[in-house]
Design goal:
Layout (H helix, E strand, L loop, with lengths): L5 H8 L3 H8 L10 H14 L1 E4 L5 E4 L6
Antiparallel strand pairs: 1-2
Helix pairs in contact: 1-2, 1-3
């Protein structure tokens, strides 16, 4: 969606590339990993333009860019 490299996400979240690789390699929901790590990655993705949706259509979507 964002076309971020693992290293870019890791840097933005303040975690190691190995952590991003490990979490991406898991099937299904993230059941392992420290809550602080997952929170840092979520915040980095939100800052980069991802909206996490809830309700009737849970998932993610890319925020529309604002016109200047």
């Amino acid at each position: 969606m964002l076309r971020l490299e693992q290293s870019e996400l890791a840097e933005a979240a303040g975690v190691s590339v190995e952590t991003v690789k490990r979490l991406e390699g898991q099937d299904g929901p993230l059941l392992t990993g420290r809550a602080a790590t997952i929170d840092a990655i979520e915040k980095a993705l939100i800052k980069a333009g991802v909206d996490f949706t809830n309700g009737d259509e849970p998932g993610v979507k890319l925020r529309a860019k604002r016109k200047r």
